[in-house]
Amino acid sequence: MDGITAHTHTRPTTRLDRARARLTRWMAAAVAGVSRAAINRRVVGQLSRMSDRDLKDIGLVRQDVLDSQTLLLEGDAANFLVGRREERRRARHPVPAGRRPASFGARC
């Protein structure tokens, strides 16, 4: 193959290999969770320092930010806030029966 070798992923064959693979996946998930929590804390902190007018410009209200603070450890505050914004957007601009917008169900 002209000096290029194909790398294939093989499944762990021994008990030790399987345990090592599980530990690696668990550690990767833990690191990802810590990173996500740090991002959530930073975003909620930035939003809490914004004025009510600025929050309204992005489709949120102060109570949304306060509610999202309870999710910092046990949930995803960013998805919660996007959901709240989308609920308000749908309430202001309802979709006529039988029509779905092109971005139906898509989250920003």
Shape: elongated
Classify the secondary structure makeup into a structural class. mainly alpha
Tally of helical runs: 4
Q: Order of helices and strands, N to C? A: HHHH
Oligomer: single chain
What does this structure look like?
Helices cover 59% and strands 0% of the residues. It has four helices and no strands. The longest helix is centred in the N-terminal third of the chain and has 34 residues, at 15-48. It starts with 14 loop residues before the first helix and ends in a 16-residue tail after the last helix. The mean pLDDT is 77.
What topology emerges from the helices and strands here?
Blueprint: H1 15-48, H2 52-57, H3 62-69, H4 77-92
What does this entry show, briefly?
By secondary structure, the protein is mostly helical.
